Amino acid sequence: xxxxxxxxxxxxxxxxxxxxxxxxxxxxxxxxxxxxxxxxxxxxxxxxxxxxxxxxxxxxxxxxxxxxxxxxxxxxxxxxxxxxxxxxxxxxxxxxxxxxxxxxxxxxxxxxxxxxxxxxxxxxxxxxxxxxxxxxxxxxxxxxxxxxxxxxxxxxxxxxxxxxxxxxxxxxxxxxxxxxxxxxxxxxxxxxxxxxxxxxxxxxxxxxxxxxxxxxxxxxxxxxxxxxxxxxxxxxxxxxxxxxxxxxxxxxxxxxxxxxxxxxxxxxxxxxxxxxxxxxxxxxxxxxxxxxxxxxxxxxxxxxxxxxxxxxxxxxxxxxxxxxxxxxxxxxxxxxxxxxxxxxxxxxxxxxxxxxxxxxxxxxxxxxxxxxxxxxxxxxxxxxxxxxxxxxxxxxxxxxxxxxxxxxxxxx
Length: 412
Prior knowledge:
Blueprint: E1 10-15, E2 18-24, H1 25-31, E3 47-50, E4 52-54, H2 66-73, H3 78-83, H4 88-98, H5 101-116, E5 119-125, H6 132-147, E6 152-160, H7 171-189, E7 194-199, H8 206-218, E8 222-227, H9 235-242, E9 246-249, H10 255-264, E10 267-270, H11 272-277, H12 286-292, E11 296-298, H13 312-323, H14 327-333, H15 336-341, E12 359-362, H16 369-372, E13 379-384, E14 387-391, E15 394-395
Parallel strand pairs: 4-5, 5-6, 6-7, 7-8, 8-9, 9-10, 10-11
Antiparallel strand pairs: 1-2, 3-12, 12-13, 13-14, 14-15
Helix pairs in contact: 5-6, 6-7, 7-8, 9-10, 13-14
């Protein structure tokens, strides 16, 4: 993870949305012939990186939890707020009311903001509906958003995000609903690639999580898992047992869980935005995970309650400054490793011939500035599948439905 394969003064060429050359200027001049229609982007004294891959987001939500944020600042815990039907259930109420055009407009704004900050691929979860109908509707909304936006979106069913109020006192009934109705319906619709569970003492037990993930696997949905975020819940061990694509959060993971993840080839998703916003003294042990051989990735955990950010650049800084990662490790974690966790090896996350031409031009002379000069958006240009979709800090992609230019500023 510390070897980024940096090419000083390098050149990149793409055709048909795919990278066909990445190397030195001398090799470029010998091997590449540009057509008369070629678009040339100048990156002198700037830095080119693969597009960021944000592999853990809760993109499909409505409403705001700024008042809960203020309460946490006074010392009220996340779990205390959840016990009072705040937290996730607060967002469930708002999201159920906003299903339809309001939610779709919010999704488009968030995707644009992510794009402006350099994200070209993201994972997005449902989880704020918690009924069969609303969870399927959220997945449909994500599919519609993906069809009309340059960001590649990979959807995850998170029906087991929290126990909905309709099933208070009937935990088994809700687990049965997720495992026996929600998962098969999502699989039939083809709107989700993964199945996730919030495995935590305030959410779902290890046994409940195992039952749901097993049902997902039986229907072709690869497991992901919220694991060991607020306590040592045993989630990492379950993720290893189930052969999950990833175990995410891991703030309280034990040494046994670290070794189990590394041994099983389960990616370790670190979400320092949530740790930061919760003012937690516990941070995922990035150094121990990396040294154990786990494939570590960084993600925003974009959500309305505990990590309200679309910027992977901010997450790079937090990964380095809070979790003792090197800048090189953080960049690898936000690109190639994140792509691996989504099953997109060789497709995105690197700048290699054959891969999708997803890359960024940053207005910095060296990649170290991505963390050294933190708190600002360094991205000036975003190219997705060979198309310039952000130029000089403005969204410029064309809407897929009507061909109208999206040449506009988006609040960043």
